[in-house]
Design a protein that fits this description.
four-stranded antiparallel β-sheet; 3 helices; binds zinc ion; mainly beta
């Protein structure tokens, strides 16, 4: 596997796995509790739709609503915890260069793009994650909503939620420490019809590392 050159890991970190997600692409992988996954926005303004499952019980899944309510924020960032639907910690956000993440749990889909834009057959996160998780026997309907690093949703006082361009720059990253053994899937969101990826879907790097604490 190619080493990822776009990021410098913390002092003493041991790289365990590195993956490159091409623009509009996806990956899935397993990781052990205590290890850290770093997601790097290679070119900037690219969001990462991330879902996770308890590796030993795939019916326990990442949950955006518990994550919002238990952290008390629409914008979980460094120090916050990403929870499962059983309210167990799945990740702790230990380093967050951007400070903008969306736990709102939805993701782009063929169905949503058809309603929003009248265009059938678009590449989308829902299909990406279904493809990524097929080897584990997980189907589309069993995939939870995503936790989405770098996604910039502005909540206006009148209740409107506006998708805006991500503030992430080239090389920015977020580090998530696994709090249980996990199966993780990530889609480099292919959306190009709204500002979510700065109108230009691009690639992501993913590095799993271990660090003695
Ligand atoms: Zn998407």
């Amino acid at each position: 596997m190619d080493l990822i050159k776009s990021t410098v890991l913390p002092e003493g970190a041991e790289e365990l796995q590195s993956l490159h997600i091409a623009a509009r692409g996806h990956v899935a992988f397993t990781m052990r509790a205590g290890n850290v996954v770093r997601i790097v926005d290679v070119e900037g303004q690219q969001v990462a739709d991330l879902v996770a499952f308890n590796q030993t019980d795939h019916t326990e899944r990442l949950n955006g609503e518990t994550t919002m309510l238990l952290n008390g924020t629409y914008n979980p960032r460094e120090g916050h915890v990403v929870y499962s639907d059983d309210c167990n910690p799945m990740f702790t956000i230990i380093d967050d260069k951007v400070g903008r993440n969306y736990p709102g749990a939805l993701m782009c889909s063929q169905e949503m793009n058809l309603i929003r834009y009248g265009i059938p057959g678009t590449v989308n996160c829902r299909d990406n994650l279904t493809d990524a998780l097929r080897p584990w026997g997980i189907g589309m309907k069993d995939i939870p909503g995503a936790f989405t690093p770098f996604m910039n949703v502005i909540h206006h006082p009148d209740g409107r939620a506006e998708i805006a361009e991500p503030p992430s720059a080239a090389g920015d990253h977020i580090d998530l420490r696994a709090e249980m053994d996990l199966l993780v899937a990530i889609s480099a969101c292919p959306q190009e019809r709204n500002p979510v990826n700065g109108w230009k879907p691009s690639s992501l790097d993913v590095v799993v590392y271990h660090q003695e604490s």
